[in-house]
Design goal:
Layout: H1 40-49, E1 54-56, E2 59-63, H2 72-84, E3 93-97, E4 102-107, E5 121-126, E6 132-136, H3 160-173, H4 185-194, E7 197-200, E8 203-206, H5 211-215, H6 235-242, E9 251-255, H7 261-268, E10 272-276, E11 289-295, H8 304-317, E12 318-325, E13 338-340, E14 343-345, E15 351-352, H9 357-368, E16 373-376, E17 379-383, H10 386-395, H11 411-415, H12 417-430, H13 442-449, H14 452-462, H15 465-486, H16 499-508, H17 512-524, H18 529-538, E18 543-545, E19 548-552, H19 561-571, E20 582-586, E21 591-596, E22 610-615, E23 620-625, H20 648-660, H21 673-682, E24 685-688, E25 691-694, H22 700-719, H23 727-732, H24 739-742
Parallel strand pairs: 9-10, 9-11, 11-12
Antiparallel strand pairs: 1-2, 2-3, 3-4, 4-5, 5-6, 7-8, 12-17, 13-14, 14-15, 16-17, 18-19, 19-20, 20-21, 21-22, 22-23, 24-25
């Protein structure tokens, strides 16, 4: 599997010095006791700079497979140590001491299979004396063990993702804190016992709660108080409804339904609906259903064993789709709470386990043995049928397309326009002709035109063939994006794909193999940060700042396919923040930000309320809520959207007027609301909706000066040479969201 290389994140790296610049008298490393060694400071500096390996205060560890990634200095230094002894065969790790001239070869025979392998033996080479020392741990009952195995290897190592996922799960539970006590087998097992977990393979498993465990938490949690009365569908169920997953004849069951709001509203939509809750509806028996909802249940169960069982029970009831949601970690989540188990007790005496988004996915995947699909923050879908799962994944990356307009009057088309409309809609949707049985109107069309191909030929005569070719290319790019993102988990078998997707592949790529080759090439190109920077710079869509590109979420599908893939690396695994309507693609570092402007459409200069940043190097997620007394505000909104956005013209007219009135000249001073309001006041201006007005109480002389300045700008603009197509984006770079302030988001 091709892994994208995120090591080059466009951060300037100091030039690697030559060996001769690092204090070496002789650059030829021969196993000669009298040969001079590099300075220890040079060794330590090179170890510190390595992008691969585990760094400790006085040592640096790296897997044998990653030695080639080291600088020339370290490779030569290690080669000299290896030449001293012939007994390094079978060693997994190499340890560079950074305060002594010593290199150790460590033997972990179960490095790949044991999540925390024990040290069996070590060989230490003293490079000053060329003395070799051996130590045997094979009979030890408490050998040193390894943690964070992914740090020793490169991202291309076959088991890297597996190692990293385990570390992420362990970090989320706090297992890797106070590392002094977990460096040996006994200390680590004691830590696992204390946290009531065990490790099976490379999966972290919660043990069933024991009586002693429960007795250590005697507090009586009032779970039922966590249920809230809703006036509308819950976000998770609404997400499934909006995704079109509630098809006719679907049955719905809400496991842990609380007051039963979702049950009632889904029933009102015409579906068979039922629910069970241990407090509010205990007499309703849990029954299997096509769609089962486990909505904000696992985060309110303080007993880890019972929590796990609730997830398993809901999955056993599921025929088609399980909707899982839980609270995720946000800023100040634990404020005013009491620590309890692996969560907190709230002021209402309810329990809350706040997950990180990736932690929640790992938990679901490990308990159910699935690949959960992130839909939004804290919401995951799990499908019973792999083909349906892949069809849903593919649909999320399908861009919109408009059926080409009729441009030429063709008698055959005009006579059969109504009959041909379903065929036109199908080709617009899939970028290809229907296969046999895919189009309900196939028989009727073929009775008039003999074949669908002949009918399509008539359509081509009445429309622009290039527009149909563009639609096919768009669908090809959509599929390439989908298959490229599949590389991050497990590429589905061709037989696992839904039949429509199989037909898409045959028509648009020829073979599944070719689709995979094209997708891997697309994914591989992400490894070059210059590609991302250049695509952002050349983008005809979005607001371009010095180190980022900003787009409204409605315009995302119109971006260059590589930028869509870049964003997909974040949204496929983590999901987008609920309500996020602006996406920021960083070019200075591999990050994606999701920004929430609640009043984007109604406020001419909306305030930023929340941001979520995903670091693509380790998928770390961070959140920030902004002070609403003086939040960052948006300018040049029309640059974020496409011309077909409903309010594009309104946005554009306001920006043009603000430019003429000089409100956007000093963009550094108007990045936040206070600066923007001060600017309006200084220009004797108020905003009424999307129209600028002069204040009635303004000084007449000052108004005269301001109006003269407006006339001067208009005159100068008329005298300017017409700008090229990039003029809007060039002006958008001098935006109120200056790059210095926007780094906060």
């Amino acid at each position: 599997m091709v892994q994208p290389d995120y090591s080059d994140d466009n951060i300037e790296i100091p030039k690697i010095p030559k060996i001769s610049e690092l204090g070496l008298v002789n650059e030829n490393y021969l196993p000669n006791q009298h040969q001079c060694l590099p300075e220890l400071s040079a060794i330590a500096f090179a170890c510190k700079r390595s992008p691969v390996g585990k760094k400790l205060p006085d040592a640096f560890y790296i897997h044998i497979s990653a030695l080639s990634t080291l600088e020339e200095l370290l490779q030569a230094y290690e080669s000299r140590a290896r030449s001293v002894t012939a007994q390094t065969h079978g060693a997994n790790l190499v340890k560079f001491s950074t305060n002594q001239f010593k290199i150790s070869y460590l033997f972990y025979p179960d490095f790949d299979t044991d999540p925390h392998p024990g040290l069996q033996a070590s060989i230490q080479v003293n490079l000053e004396t060329l003395e070799v020392t051996h130590r045997d741990y094979s009979q030890s009952q408490n050998p040193p063990i390894l943690h964070r195995k992914e740090t020793f290897v490169t991202p291309e190592y076959p088991l890297y993702q597996q190692f990293a996922a385990l570390t992420k799960a362990q970090e989320s539970l706090g297992l890797l804190t106070n590392t002094q006590t977990i460096g040996t087998r006994a200390g680590w097992e004691e830590r696992l016992q204390a946290y009531n977990v065990e490790i099976q393979g490379h999966r972290l498993i919660q043990r069933q709660a024991t009586i002693s465990t429960l007795e250590s938490f005697p507090r009586q949690i009032e779970r039922h108080k966590a249920a809230i009365v809703r006036n509308d569908l819950s976000r998770p169920v609404r997400a499934a409804l909006e995704a079109g997953l509630f098809t006719p004849e679907i049955t719905f069951f809400d496991y842990g339904c609380g007051h039963g709001g979702d049950v009632t509203r889904i029933s009102q939509q015409g579906f068979i609906s039922a629910g069970w809750d241990p407090y509010y509806l205990p007499d309703t028996p849990p029954t299997p259903a096509d769609i089962v909802n486990l909505g904000y249940v696992i985060n309110v169960i303080e007993d880890t064993g019972e929590r796990r069982q609730a997830l398993v029970n809901a999955w056993e009831l599921t025929r088609r789709l399980l909707i899982i949601s839980a609270q995720v970690t946000l800023a100040d989540t634990n404020k005013g709470t009491i620590a309890y188990g692996d969560g907190v007790v709230t002021t209402r005496n309810t329990f809350q386990k706040y997950y990180e988004q990736e932690e929640l996915k790992i938990y679901i995947d490990q308990v159910l043995g699935v690949d959960a699909i992130p839909v939004a923050l804290g919401i995951y879908f799990v499908f019973r049928d792999e083909a349906q799962a892949q069809l849903f994944r593919a649909s999320r990356f399908r861009s919109r397309a408009t059926t080409p307009r009729v441009k030429v009057e063709v008698k055959g088309f005009e006579d059969y326009k109504e009959l041909l409309t379903p065929l036109m809609s199908f080709v617009t949707e899939r970028g290809r002709l229907p296969s046999k049985g895919e189009l309900a109107e196939e028989a009727e069309i073929c009775s008039e035109f003999r074949t669908l191909k002949r009918a399509y030929h008539v359509i081509l005569q009445a429309t622009d063939p290039e527009e149909w070719q563009a639609i096919a290319q768009k669908r090809r790019q959509d599929l390439m994006l989908y298959f490229a993102l599949c590389q991050f988990s497990r590429r589905p078998k061709f037989s696992d794909l839904a039949l429509p997707v199989q037909e898409d592949i045959k028509a648009l790529f020829g073979t599944y193999k070719q689709a995979g080759i094209d997708a891997e090439a697309m994914l591989y190109s992400l490894g070059n940060t210059e590609n991302i920077i250049e695509r952002c710079r050349q983008s005809q869509i979005g607001k371009k700042l010095a180190n980022s590109l900003w787009v409204h979420i409605s315009a995302l599908e119109n971006l260059d396919p590589l930028l869509r893939l870049y964003e997909g690396c974040a949204s496929r695994t983590i999901g987008r923040m609920q309500g996020a309507n602006v996406i920021k693609i960083h070019t200075k570092s591999p990050k994606i930000s999701y920004l929430f402007y609640p009043d984007f459409d109604t406020d001419p200069h909306p305030a930023l309320q929340t941001s979520m940043i995903i670091d693509l190097r380790d998928l770390h997620v961070s959140y920030r809520d902004f002070d609403q007394d003086n939040p960052p505000v948006l300018h040049y909104k029309e640059a974020l959207v496409t011309p077909d956005y409903p309010q594009y013209e309104k946005f554009t007219r306001l920006t043009r007027q603000e430019e003429e009135w000089g409100l956007l000249d000093d963009w550094r001073s108007i990045t936040h609301r206070s600066g923007w309001l001060k600017c309006l006041e200084e220009h004797c201006t108020t905003l009424k909706g999307y129209q600028l007005l002069r204040r009635k109480d303004a000084d007449p002389y000052k108004l005269k000066v301001l109006r003269a300045a407006v006339n001067t700008r208009r005159y100068q603009k008329r005298q300017e040479i017409p700008k090229n197509d990039d003029s809007k984006n060039v002006s958008a770079t001098t935006d109120g969201e200056s790059e210095s302030s926007s780094q906060q988001t």
